[in-house]
Design a protein that fits this description.
Layout: E1 7-11, E2 22-25, H1 36-39, E3 43-44, H2 52-58, H3 65-75, H4 79-92, E4 97-101, H5 110-119
Parallel strand pairs: 1-4, 2-3, 2-4
Length: 120
């Protein structure tokens, strides 16, 4: 049986740690108040982020998360987003990957959906 990829989920506002592995921001917009130097990113993968329309509709309302998740998974079928997701999967084959987002509640974010997809 294949080993489960080592993928972690954190906020971009948390300080980088030595065991983060590859640090990837998956938000469409750059987070407020974070310099690129402080972020310590290896990559900013905007192509895998949800559309502005979906993000605006969702508004991180917990009661909308399951519907958001479903709509976001549909969006990930788009060729550009699918290619970005394949790229993230390829990274997990070689190293630990830490998926980063500016969202306050990371457990109901697009980043959490991506982490689950990458771990499965």
């Amino acid at each position: 049986m294949a080993e489960r990829p080592d993928v972690r989920l954190r906020r971009i506002y948390d300080d980088p740690t030595d065991d983060d592995g590859i640090r990837v921001l998956v938000d469409r917009r750059w987070p407020r108040g974070v310099s690129k130097a402080r972020a310590g990113l290896d990559e900013w993968c905007t192509d895998v982020a949800p559309s502005d329309a979906l993000r605006t509709w969702y508004g991180h309302a917990p009661e909308k998360f399951e519907e958001f998740r479903s709509r976001y998974l549909e969006e990930l079928q788009d060729p550009d987003r699918a290619a970005a997701l394949r790229h993230l999967r390829a990274m997990t084959a070689h190293d630990r990957v830490t998926i980063l987002t500016a969202t306050k509640n990371v457990q109901i974010s697009q980043a959490a959906v991506l982490v689950k997809l990458l771990q499965d």
